[in-house]
Amino acid sequence: MNKYIAEFVGTFFLVLTIGCTGIGAGAAVIAPLAIGAALMVMVFAGGHISGGHYNPAVTLGVLIRGRVKASDVFPYILAQLAAAAVAAITVKFLRAGIVVTPIAPKLGPALLAEFLFTFALVYVVLNAATAEGTSGNSFYGLAIGMTVMTGAFAVGDISGGAFNPAVAVGISILGIAAWSNLWIYLLAEFAAAVVAAMVFQMINPPAQVTPIATDEPPYETPQ
Fold it and tell me: Is residue 209 very low, low, confident or very high in pLDDT (cuts 50, 70, 90)?
């Protein structure tokens, strides 16, 4: 249960930050920087407990990599989606009265943008936080947070910069994205997670791809 609580808390603050910086924030607020920083600190905070996924696509990638038990996948994703919904409701309360206009992404560019930077995110997670060659490092949280920050700066105006099915649900609840476009995020992000995990398996020697032991966290993090 501790793992699922950690996933809920981390995802909650990620989506809360996205909502509060994306709706009604002052002109001086640099949303991608805040979002990347929120993810970074939450990964550092919960990584030793749950692995700090906070993202169903990351959970899928880590499952394919072999560092999360199959029995944990559904509870992880449920905790992430529940946290996104609660965070969105909280943002609605905090930003009550502000009119939100849904983004109108173009199908092709939005699919590609979400695929590319979700791929980058899952690829970075797997290599920075699960590979034997980077085991015990102290930079994994920074690397993961900066990947999301980079993607938000690069393609946020194209697709909304979700890179995370839980975030996609959250921004749909908030009205930042239309529910009719939710499939774009889900298709691109889950496909990217599968491809990123396959690329990781290809470029890392078999000795570095060891199955998770019963008492280990979902992926290796410094103690």
Answer: very low
